[in-house]
Amino acid sequence: MAKTDAQIGIRVTKEFKEQLEVQAKKERRTVSNLILKVMEDYIKEQSKET
């Protein structure tokens, strides 16, 4: 995976952050990596629809 060169900050609820941490742990990823993967997959899918 390419090294990132920009940051995006978001605020989420404590509960949602905990859910992200649980899922990331299941996938042996960092939370940041999990979010990046999910967003990349979403963008890829959206590109197919247009």
Topology of this structure?
Blueprint: H1 14-26, H2 31-49
Structure, explained:
64% of the residues lie in helices and 0% in strands. The protein is mostly helical. The longest helix is centred in the C-terminal third of the chain and has 19 residues, at 31-49. The protein is globular and about 35 Å long. It has one domain (14-49). The chain has helices spanning 14-26, 31-49. The chain contains 2 helices and no strands.
DSSP helix fraction: 55-70%
Structure classification:
mainly alpha
The beta-strand count equals: 0
Question: Can you count the helices?
Answer: 2
Distance between the termini: 25 Å
Largest sheet: none
Order of helices and strands: HH
Q: Into which percentage range does the β-strand content fall?
A: under 5%
Would you identify the regions where 5 or more consecutive residues have pLDDT less than 50? none
Assembly state of the chains shown: single chain
Mean pLDDT: 93
Radius of gyration: 13 Å
CA-based shape: globular
Number of domains: 1
Brief write-up:
64% of the residues lie in helices and 0% in strands. The protein is mainly alpha-helical.
Write out key terms for the chains shown.
single chain; 50 residues; mainly alpha; 2 helices
